[in-house]
């Protein structure tokens, strides 16, 4: 049996794209690259490949310009690269193209790494769909990832500031948050070699259109109208007062000029105390 | 339409009640402590409760499929909902519309390009969507909800094992969700000692005593005194805390743009008429660094150099 | 990041870098890319090293490029260069806090081939020019900082060290095109004195405005644009201001004397803010959203502050060699950078072909420069920086001239109109200008610019 395979899925993003705030038209800029999250995924993939003594494949779905992100990965130490030609229509489409292309050339990966969110779409759904397709376990939005007894240990952010610790068995798909690790500097020989490298391209057989989905419109972002429940109160006057807050007591803003730092600290702590911020 | 709410230890995720409201009160609560979680969701009308133990996206998706088939399914776009929704879509073989600000039976409006663009999609047939928290209000249902407990038979699937759930830690909390924030501005880092990185470290220590996270203006992150992840504003994080204390922050439009949802705002600044102080509930006109040092002293913060 | 070392790295006999090139060019600004194009076209193996993530990523300038010099390098460059607008209208303004005297010139000739000046973004322009070098065969290595020169035991420069792991390169010749305050030139010991003393600081904001608004306010259409330079716009600190039109943004900024800025204790942003509030500028920039703010040094010493241009295995080009022609309102750097880079590339190619890249073998560089516009213009304008930065030109003349013109145009009835001579004497006196100085400055101005 050959060496195990660690895959990192990289998406070329356009961090300088501008959006017309009136129409929502997106103006692409020429210089794409990796998001910080994908850079982190790449670094994790390189580390995991080292610790599992595995090959490291960098792959992307995108046009020819997306070769650049693969060269970045090769320069940093990825052992091989694969581009799937095409413009993915959705997260599901991306996952399908990647899975098919990887399976056609390699065995199923032991570990597949992704960034937590892409910059443009930003749903973080691609990694979960990749896990579904490979039948692998998923651990997403990780802030920490280490190998542990042939498996993985990870920490993940939940909402409201909580976190969870996970034990993960391989095969697995993991997505990582940005700035958890820093992508290593590519060596100069690595950079020179990556510039010259031939990037294999997989061309998917048929183009895929999900006929169930149709785009009605693209507009600039406008917050949704908020429905507010009718205020309580029997008489209309009461309801108007409840809605506008008229005649209810408000604390006016205060401006204080304390004589010294001690007096200032007292002012601040008193304020916090009154608002219930101190235990 | 039906909402699926993953529950951990009787706690529903951010945006759960809004998601229930989007589905007109119809929901499935799955996880641990679902009955208590249901008490907190005022928009519930009709609810299935499933005690399924620890979060397991692959197993839950398989086990829920039959219950959800042929319906539009919506989940809150909080971490657990974002993880479960794609697995459900895959299991049900329907489209996924992730990151919506509005979901109807016919489709959804999706926020894209960092919430600068809306893609309005129409879907024929059922689909799975996730709804971004904070996009709508949820008025309480008129009557107590109808609750039905459903039995759950665990599905054998490849899911990670939850080793532990850690309580919130203000040092690492996502700023966007932190309830209390101390902001570091140029006025804190350039004046009297403590200055620069030292001032930010002390602010961090004081923040821990107050259960508050630390954020910063671009001047401070540009100077390298704080991580970019800590930058508050239009090109940083948008925060919604109960309490925001601004230390030496002038209140530039790009910064103010990130603190719109603050309940109690305090500004510490030597300039009584800077925008931040004029909009604050309490403006303290004094040297920010000296006040910080005094606070550290009063709150019993130990030396900040040892970490 | 490894910080640059102050002295070259000595290479032992037989010690090799990880790769060897005929020429290693440091900096993919206009100077470096022009040199790379020439060398690659001469069939040489060229590495073009750039610390930014792409050429132009961090490069700052005002906004106008004079492309004539490109005719030789890239025929019909105007059909493909990433141009925002062609400058068909040029204004010079003398400002006092409440007055403005403007000389306004427009010509249709500059709006058609072969064109004169154009506004362009450096991120686009530098990337385009470096792309030309790559097309010619040069290897562009980005995000790579050169940290030191490498020399053999005899002191001859044989390559560079970069901040990357295994980052040593060998080179037949190194071209330092690393911009103002070049540390490579310093490391090679080619600067007689500290270049900082001869530098000014340029700061600039980019203000986004709709295309139609710009065309309406500046009276231009299509891809025509405006270039405005100002004197007296810098709160008494020696320097000048500029305002250029891009397609859907404006570049506005000031260039000021570094020492005097320090003494005045104003932040450079405040100078721009003040300029934007000036009654004659405010209506032009109103509503513009700041999309970018940047600051950069400019070598402003001119001819007298240039370093020795060649070393043993080394050439210096562009701002690194103080080639920027910055005489107050006159701010041309990119064209001089391209010109000097081009001649450096040719001289290096000739030296490589002759098999002698020692100081002597590279001497052709200075000769080529001297017989071209590059040194000719610098020699001619060598007195201009001193004159333009003088107290009189900076403070007194704008105020005096504005007063004079205000007097000429003011209708004084029922008093009779005062004569021009009287007005001149009066405003000169009021602003402490001696007519003797005025005459002398005029003569030296004519000598410099004429
Ligand atoms: C395109 C763009 C995007 C931007 N995005 C962001 C963003 O997302 N977030 C952001 O924060 N900024 C952003 N900025 C920068 C923003 O415009 C301001 O420059 C920045 O917010 C100012 O930070 P500050 O308040 O810390 O500094 P300053 O504006 O310099 O204010 C310092 C304040 O400290 C006070 N002070 C001075 N000394 C003391 C002392 N000893 N004690 C107490 N107070 C003192 C001063 O009175 C002053 O009010 C952006 C700018 C641009 C152009
Ligand atoms: C505010 C301002 C306004 C200006 N306005 C104008 C104008 O309107 N028109 C005009 O023609 N000129 C203008 N100039 C001048 C002009 O910008 C410069 O003269 C010109 O950029 C010089 O080109 P260069 O190639 O020599 O140097 P640069 O453009 O400075 O390029 C140097 C390159 O070297 C790279 N580099 C530096 N050190 C290293 C290293 N150690 N390793 C690797 N790479 C390195 C840098 O990243 C950079 O890309 C202006 C300058 C300023 C500051
Ligand atoms: N076109 C693509 N090619 C390769 N990987 C991708 C692609 N799109 C998304 N990914 C991966 O999926 C992650 C999350 O993206 P998204 O689901 O779009 O938010 C990214 O950080 C990438 O790791």
UniProtKB/TrEMBL annotation, chain A:
Heterodimer of an alpha and a beta subunit. Residues 23-211 form the Electron transfer flavoprotein alpha/beta-subunit N-terminal domain. It comes from Tamaricihabitans halophyticus. Pfam families: ETF. This is Electron transfer flavoprotein beta subunit. It comes from the Bacteria. Its cofactor is FAD. GO terms for molecular function: electron transfer activity. The electron transfer flavoprotein serves as a specific electron acceptor for other dehydrogenases. It transfers the electrons to the main respiratory chain via ETF-ubiquinone oxidoreductase (ETF dehydrogenase).
UniProtKB/TrEMBL annotation, chain B:
It comes from the Bacteria. InterPro entries: DHS-like_NAD/FAD-binding_dom, ETF_a/b_N, ETF_a/FixB, ETF_asu_C, Rossmann-like_a/b/a_fold. Its cofactor is FAD. Residues 26-138 form the Electron transfer flavoprotein alpha/beta-subunit N-terminal domain. Residues 174-259 form the Electron transfer flavoprotein alpha subunit C-terminal domain. Gene3D superfamilies: HUPs (3.40.50.620), TPP-binding domain (3.40.50.1220). One of its GO terms (molecular function) is electron transfer activity. Heterodimer of an alpha and a beta subunit. PANTHER family: ELECTRON TRANSFER FLAVOPROTEIN ALPHA, ELECTRON TRANSFER FLAVOPROTEIN SUBUNIT ALPHA, MITOCHONDRIAL. Belongs to the ETF alpha-subunit/FixB family. This is Electron transfer flavoprotein alpha subunit. It comes from Tamaricihabitans halophyticus.
UniProtKB/TrEMBL annotation, chain C:
InterPro entries: FAD/NAD-bd_sf (IPR036188), FixC-like (IPR039651). Pfam families: FAD_oxidored (PF12831). This is Electron transfer flavoprotein-quinone oxidoreductase. SUPFAM superfamilies: FAD-linked reductases, C-terminal domain, FAD/NAD(P)-binding domain. Its cofactor is FAD. Keywords: FAD, Flavoprotein, Oxidoreductase. It comes from Tamaricihabitans halophyticus. Belongs to the ETF-QO/FixC family. One of its GO terms (molecular function) is oxidoreductase activity. It comes from the Bacteria. The keyword Flavoprotein applies.
């Amino acid at each position: 049996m050959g060496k195990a395979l660690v895959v990192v899925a990289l998406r070329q993003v356009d961090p300088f794209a501008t959006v017309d705030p009136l129409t929502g038209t997106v103006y692409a800029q020429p210089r794409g690259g990796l998001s910080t999250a994908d850079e982190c995924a790449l670094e994790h993939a390189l580390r995991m490949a080292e610790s599992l003594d595995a090959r490291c494949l960098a792959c992307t779905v995108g046009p020819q310009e997306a070769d650049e992100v693969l060269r970045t990965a090769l320069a940093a130490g990825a052992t091989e690269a694969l581009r799937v030609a095409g413009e993915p229509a959705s997260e599901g489409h991306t996952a399908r193209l990647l899975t098919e292309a990887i399976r056609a050339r390699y065995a199923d990966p032991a570990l597949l790494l992704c960034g937590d969110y892409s910059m443009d779409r930003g749903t973080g759904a691609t990694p979960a769909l990749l896990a579904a397709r490979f039948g692998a376990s998923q651990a997403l939005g990780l802030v920490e990832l280490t190998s542990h007894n042939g498996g993985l240990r990870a920490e993940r952010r939940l909402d409201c500031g909580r976190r969870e610790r996970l034990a993960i068995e391989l095969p697995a798909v993991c997505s990582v948050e940005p700035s958890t690790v820093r992508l290593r500097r590519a060596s100069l020989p690595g950079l020179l070699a990556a510039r010259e490298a031939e990037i294999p391209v997989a061309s998917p057989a048929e183009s895929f259109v999900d006929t169930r989905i149709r785009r009605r419109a693209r507009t600039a972002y406008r917050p949704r109208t908020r429905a507010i429940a009718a205020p309580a109160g029997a008489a209309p006057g009461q309801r108007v007062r409840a809605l506008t807050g008229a005649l209810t007591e408000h604390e006016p803003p205060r401006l204080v000029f304390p004589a010294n730092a001690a007096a200032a600290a007292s002012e601040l702590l008193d304020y916090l105390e009154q608002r219930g911020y101190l235990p | 339409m039906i909402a699926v709410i993953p529950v951990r230890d009787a706690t529903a995720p951010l945006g759960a009640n809004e998601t229930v409201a989007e589905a007109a009160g119809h929901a499935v609560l799955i996880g641990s402590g679902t009955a208590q979680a249901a008490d907190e969701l005022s928009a519930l009308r009709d609810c299935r409760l499933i005690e399924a133990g620890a979060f397991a996206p692959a197993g839950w998706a398989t086990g829920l499929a039959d219950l959800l088939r042929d319906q539009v399914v919506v989940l809150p776009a909080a971490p657990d909902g974002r993880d479960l929704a794609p697995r459900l879509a895959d299991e049900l073989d329907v489209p996924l519309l992730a990151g919506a600000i509005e979901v109807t039976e016919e489709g959804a409006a999706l926020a894209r390009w960092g919430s600068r663009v809306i893609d309005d999609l129409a879907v024929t047939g059922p689909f799975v969507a996730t709804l971004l928290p904070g996009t709508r209000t949820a008025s309480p249902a008129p009557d107590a909800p109808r609750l039905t407990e459903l039995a759950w038979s665990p599905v054998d699937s490849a899911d990670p094992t939850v080793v532990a759930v850690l309580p919130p830690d203000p040092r690492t909390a996502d700023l966007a969700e932190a309830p209390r924030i101390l902001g570091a501005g140029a006025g804190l880092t350039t004046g009297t000692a403590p200055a620069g990185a030292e001032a930010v470290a002390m602010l961090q220590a004081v923040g821990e005593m107050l259960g508050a996270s630390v954020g910063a203006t671009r001047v401070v992150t540009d100077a390298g005194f704080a991580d970019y992840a800590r930058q508050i504003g239009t090109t940083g994080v948008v925060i919604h805390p109960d309490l925001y204390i601004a230390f030496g922050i002038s209140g530039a439009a790009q910064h103010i743009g990130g603190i719109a949802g603050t309940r109690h705002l305090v500004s510490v600044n030597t300039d009584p008429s800077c925008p931040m102080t004029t909009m604050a509930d309490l403006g303290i006109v004094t040297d920010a660094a000296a006040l910080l040092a005094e606070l550290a002293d009063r709150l019993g913060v130990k030396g900040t150099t040892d970490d | 990041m490894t910080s640059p070392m102050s002295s070259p790295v000595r290479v032992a006999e037989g010690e090799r870098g990880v790769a060897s090139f005929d020429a290693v060019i440091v900096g993919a600004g206009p100077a470096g890319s022009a040199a790379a194009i020439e060398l690659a076209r001469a069939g040489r193996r060229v590495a073009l090293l750039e610390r930014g993530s792409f050429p132009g990523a961090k490069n700052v300038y005002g906004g106008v490029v004079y492309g004539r010099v490109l005719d030789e390098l890239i025929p019909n460059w105007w059909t493909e260069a990433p141009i925002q607008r062609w400058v068909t209208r040029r204004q010079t303004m003398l400002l006092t806090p409440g007055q403005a005297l403007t000389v306004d010139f427009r010509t249709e000739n500059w709006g058609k081939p072969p064109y004169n000046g154009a506004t362009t973004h450096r991120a686009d322009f530098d990337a385009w020019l470096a792309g030309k070098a790559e097309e010619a065969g040069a290897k562009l290595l980005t995000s790579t900082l050169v940290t030191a020169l490498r020399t053999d035991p005899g002191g001859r420069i044989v390559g560079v060290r970069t901040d990357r792991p295994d980052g040593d390169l060998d080179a037949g010749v190194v071209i330092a095109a690393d911009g103002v305050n070049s540390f490579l030139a310093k490391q090679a010991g080619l600067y007689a004195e500290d270049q900082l003393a001869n530098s000014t600081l340029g700061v600039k904001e980019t203000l986004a405005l709709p295309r139609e608004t710009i065309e309406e306010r500046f009276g231009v259409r299509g891809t025509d644009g405006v270039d405005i330079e100002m004197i007296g716009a810098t709160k008494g600190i020696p320097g000048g201001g500029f305002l250029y039109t891009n397609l859907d943004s404006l570049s506005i900024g000031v260039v000021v004397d570094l020492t005097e800025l320090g003494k005045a204790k104003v932040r450079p942003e405040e100078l721009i803010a003040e300029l934007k509030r000036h009654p004659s500028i405010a209506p032009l920039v109103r509503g513009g959203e700041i999309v970018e703010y940047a600051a950069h040094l400019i070598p402003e010493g001119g001819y007298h502050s240039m370093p020795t241009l060649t070393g043993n295995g080394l050439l210096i080009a562009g701002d690194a060699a103080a080639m920027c022609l910055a005489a107050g309102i006159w701010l041309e750097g990119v064209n001089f950078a391209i010109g000097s880079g081009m001649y450096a590339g040719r001289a290096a190619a000739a030296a490589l072909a002759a098999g002698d890249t020692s100081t002597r073998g590279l001497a052709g560089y200075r000769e080529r420069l001297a017989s071209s516009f590059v040194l000719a213009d610098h020699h001619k304008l060598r007195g201009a920086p001193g004159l333009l930065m003088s107290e009189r030109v900076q403070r007194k003349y704008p105020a005096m001239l504005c007063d004079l013109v205000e007097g000429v145009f003011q209708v004084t009835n029922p008093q009779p109109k005062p004569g021009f001579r009287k007005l001149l004497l009066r405003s000169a006196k009021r602003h402490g200008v001696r007519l003797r100085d005025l005459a002398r400055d005029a003569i030296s101005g004519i000598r410099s610019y004429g």
